[in-house]
Amino acid sequence: MMTKQNVTGLILAGGAGRRVGGVDKGLLNYDGTSLIERQTQWLKPQVKTILISANRNIEQYKKYNHEVLQDNQQGFEGPLHGVLKGLEFCSTPWLFVQPVDMPGLPINLIDLIQSKQVVADCYYLKSNQREHYLSMLINRKCLPGLKKYLTSGSRRVRGFHQQMGSIPLDLGLEESMFKNLNLQSDY
C-alpha cells in the first residue's frame, strides 16, 4: 500500500527555460513567491522527502533545505535525466515527479493518487482533456528500464511511458489545474 512514508517527491527544475528567455523558471516569482518555494511548500506535507532536480543556480536551490540533484549529462538533455537522478537518490519505493512550473494542482494530490488501486510500477496523470506525462508516480523498480531507455538515445517522456506500460491516472482534475507557466507573460 502506498503511503506518505513510502513516497519521495522530485521537483523538476533543471530545464533551460527557453520559452522564458533562458531564465531559470524555478526562481521566477509567481504571485509573490518563487516557483520552487511554492512547489516545496505544496509537496512537503504530501511526501516523506523532497528532492530538487536543477542544473544551474545550485546554491540558490540548496537554500530550500532539500537535496539538490544535477543530471549526469552536461547541458539540458531533457527531464528524464532528472527523473533518472531522482530514482538513483530516492530512498523510498515510490517517486512522485512534478515540474516546477505547474503550481495549480490540488493540495491533496498524493492522497487522491493513494485512493486509487496502485497495481503498476509507473503512472502519469491525466486531466479531463489530455495526458500529462511529466506528472508521474514511478516505482524504483523502473530504474533499470529508464537507464536502458536513455542509453539507447531516446529522450521522449511519452515514449518512456509507452515502453514501461505506464498507466494514466484520471483523478477527475480539470485541465486548468495542469497549466504550465511557460511564458514571461504567465509571471
Structure characterization notes:
The chain has helices at 35-43, 58-62, 79-89, 109-114, 143-151, 157-164; strands at 7-12, 29-30, 33-34, 49-53, 67-69, 94-99, 122-126, 131-139, 167-170. The chain is α/β, with parallel strands linked by helices. It has a single domain (4-186), classed as Spore Coat Polysaccharide Biosynthesis Protein SpsA, Chain A (Alpha-Beta Complex), CATH 3.90.550. α3 runs antiparallel to α5 (143-151). The N and C termini lie far apart (39 Å).
Radius of gyration: 15 Å
Largest sheet: 7 strands, mixed
CATH architecture group name: Alpha-Beta Complex
Low-confidence stretches: none
In brief:
With 187 residues, this protein is α/β, with parallel strands linked by helices. It has a single domain, classed as Spore Coat Polysaccharide Biosynthesis Protein SpsA, Chain A (Alpha-Beta Complex). It contains six helices and nine strands; from the N terminus they run E-E-E-H-E-H-E-H-E-H-E-E-H-H-E.
Layout of strands and helices, then pairs:
Blueprint (H helix, E strand, L loop, with lengths): L6 E6 L16 E2 L2 E2 H9 L5 E5 L4 H5 L4 E3 L9 H11 L4 E6 L9 H6 L7 E5 L4 E9 L3 H9 L5 H8 L2 E4 L17
Parallel strand pairs: 1-4, 1-6, 4-5, 7-9
Antiparallel strand pairs: 2-3, 6-8, 7-8
Helix pairs in contact: 3-5
